[in-house]
Every structure is written in structure tokens, then in C-alpha cells.
């Protein structure tokens, strides 16, 4: 994986940089190789790089001080949350500061009247729901890693989760952001109110993968728990029939709270790991959750059962208690670590497709298995077409990592080919960086880069990620002057 060449000037000035950082963040600078080792990778552990230095600020002012030092000395900055990201977005740089935000981990305000909670970026996703559970509230986005992933990282990647089909991803559930620019300015967007007028800058920051600023505070929307929630386990003798059922449920106007799909390898791995009660004699399994008033839930469950049977479901089981419903979801949320028990290594991909293309994509992935000689276990958010194929390989076997990378690239290109996109919630990072040309044209990428330049003209924030080729900001705004004449000289200029 190619990364920017380290800047020799920055490497030579490391001692001066460390001195300034230690003054700005007392006790929060890690510079010894052995102590920096835990920060050399994120959840995409196939790629590793030691940082120049790790800095762990304790508050927003210290974050701002680090950014000012970095800007003045021309040093790159890579923001990092819990390190659970799966696209290499927090991979350090040999000539860059790794800015860890784990110490900013306080819940600052719980406002039930406005149904809002304000937190620092190091607060875990699940901690918000736990903090408001006693009053019957929760935070809707729930990534599988919610016990460990942090809100700052959720904002950076616009994370979703199993319930994002009905309740939306991070962008649909945040009200305000405080962030620090590379100049060290502290800015606020939004608040506890709903949508503001003007440009949607909060939408720009959400999902920007640390390329535009460093998030230091987030205000999220909390929801009341639904009166009733029940889940249905539906088994099929083929993944194609499960995919057809997903499309039929949505086409019937039913929007489940969550609708997840697992294929046979993932079902067996999850069941062996957690004993969730999954049927083992099926090729594919749907978990469909309906929530709302009890009468509505009962009606929708009957409709889902009818649609599933019309699509040749071979089994159908409805949760009869809250414990059983949670067990259904526990197996799904544990699917990733469960697959780790059946393969020495795996690479978790993330692409999104139109729902109608699901059967086609699943068939093509079976072809990829034969072509590359690697198994694929599928676990994904079926309701919104967000795929998470797990490519199983052994990094100790020569050529298997490279083969896994090729399978991953083939799957992502297929997603674009059928009308989808390269990522749903894991981000681009370094994993999909060199595939951006498959989805976007040169003009598209140049326009995205101009936005990056507006926030970070010197490309100091998380460079080497997302964009397959960096351009100087001046190049993107250049204008050709021919024989002293500007282009279109007849157009009035102000």
C-alpha cells in the first residue's frame, strides 16, 4: 500500500517538534517506539506504519494547540478515535502526528427536554444509550463495534449499524459539532436545534474521515424506545431467495427497524460462537425486526411472514421475549469476531448496492470464490444494500493477502458496476483510495479536492487517504491566460 514519502525536513526537526508538543500537552506525548506500537494500525491490521509521535490531548484547547504547532511547522496530523475503523483511515504517517482523542471521553450534557446529549468524541457509541436508558431513551445508530467505537470516529466515517434502515446513519442523528481547524481555530456548527439555514457544513464534516478538521464535541439526537420490538428469523435454501425477500418487504411499504442477512458460513460461525439459536440447515438467514405500537408490530410480523413464505422460506421463527430478540441480534453483532475463529485472517469489505441487485451480486461473489480460491462469508445490512463480505485468508500463506486484496477490489468494482458505491459506513481510507477513479471522474475528484483545500490548503490533515492522487490547491484553481487575454473576456468580472 503506497503512502506519501516522509518529509525529510520534518524528520530532521523531530526534536524541536517534541519539545513544543510537550509544552502544549504536558504528559500527553508518546515518542518511544515501544509505547507507540499499539498505534501503528487501526482495524485494517494488514497495513501498519509507526507514527512520528503520538499526542493524547485532554481537552479542546490542547487539540487546538497541537493543530497550530502542526500548521506552523508543516507537520501532518492524523486524527484517531478508538482505532476500530476498517478502512485504514487512522493509519499513521512516518512524518506525522497521530492525534489520539481517547482522553476526551466525558458525557457533557443530557437534555431530555430537547432529546439531545452532548459528548466528547472519545465517548463510546453504546455509552450514550446506557446513559439515557433509565429514562427510556437510546441513541439509534448502532455499529457492530458499538461497545468500543467512539462517537468521534462515527462522525468521521458516518457510521450506521443494524438499525440504520429505519432510523438513519450518524448524519441523520447528530445536531451539532464542535471541531478544530488545522489553523487551531475552534468552530461550532448546529446545536440542540434541528436543521439550520445556509450551507450544510455539518453534513460536509460528517463522513469527512479527518480530512477537514478534528471533531472535539458532538451533540446527538436521542429517541424514545419503541413500545414494542420483535424480531423474526427467516431461513432460506439460497441467498438469492433471501435477497428477493428483502426487496419484496421494502416494495410492500414495510420499513423494518433492522433487516440483516447472513449466509451459511457466517450463520455457523455465529452460532458456534454464541449459541444464538440460529437454524444450521439453511443457506441464508434474514433477521427482520419490527418496532412500534404492539398492534402495528403484530400486523407487520404477519405481513413479513406472508412475504417470506411466498419467497420459499424454509423456516420462520418470531421472538417471544425481549431476551430472545436480543439473542437474535447478539449473534449478528458477534458475527465478525465469530468468523475470526474459522479463519486465521479475514478482510471485511464495505460496499453499497441497489437492493434489486442483491441476488446478482451474491451470485457473482460465488464466482469470485472459485476464481481466486478464497472463501467469502457474507454479513450485511440487507435492508439498505450495505454489504460486508468477509474474505477469508491466511496471511502466512504466500500470495493470500494479495489475493484477498484482489477479491476485495473485484467486489467493490462490482458494487459500482451495478449502480452502487464504494462504501456505506467504513469510509474510503487507504483501502478504497485507489478505487475512487472507478466511481468518480476526474472532474468529480477535483471538485472534492477543492472542498478539502478550503479547509486544509496545505494538505496536513490525514493526507494519503481517500484521494488517489493529491494535487496542490493552486493547481486546482489555475487559469490559463493566452496572449494576455483571460478566458471568456466578454464576461463581466467583479
UniProtKB/TrEMBL annotation:
<feature type="domain" description="FAD-binding PCMH-type">
    <location>
        <begin position="47"/>
        <end position="225"/>
    </location>
</feature>
<dbReference type="InterPro" id="IPR051914">
    <property type="entry name" value="FAD-linked_OxidoTrans_Type4"/>
</dbReference>
<dbReference type="InterPro" id="IPR036318">
    <property type="entry name" value="FAD-bd_PCMH-like_sf"/>
</dbReference>
<dbReference type="InterPro" id="IPR004113">
    <property type="entry name" value="FAD-bd_oxidored_4_C"/>
</dbReference>
<dbReference type="InterPro" id="IPR016164">
    <property type="entry name" value="FAD-linked_Oxase-like_C"/>
</dbReference>
<dbReference type="InterPro" id="IPR016166">
    <property type="entry name" value="FAD-bd_PCMH"/>
</dbReference>
<dbReference type="GO" id="GO:0016491">
    <property type="term" value="F:oxidoreductase activity"/>
</dbReference>
<dbReference type="Pfam" id="PF01565">
    <property type="entry name" value="FAD_binding_4"/>
</dbReference>
<protein>
    <submittedName>
        <fullName>FAD-binding protein</fullName>
    </submittedName>
</protein>
<dbReference type="InterPro" id="IPR016171">
    <property type="entry name" value="Vanillyl_alc_oxidase_C-sub2"/>
</dbReference>
<keyword id="KW-0285">Flavoprotein</keyword>
<dbReference type="InterPro" id="IPR006094">
    <property type="entry name" value="Oxid_FAD_bind_N"/>
</dbReference>
<keyword id="KW-0560">Oxidoreductase</keyword>
<dbReference type="InterPro" id="IPR016169">
    <property type="entry name" value="FAD-bd_PCMH_sub2"/>
</dbReference>
<dbReference type="GO" id="GO:0071949">
    <property type="term" value="F:FAD binding"/>
</dbReference>
<keyword id="KW-0274">FAD</keyword>
<dbReference type="Pfam" id="PF02913">
    <property type="entry name" value="FAD-oxidase_C"/>
</dbReference>
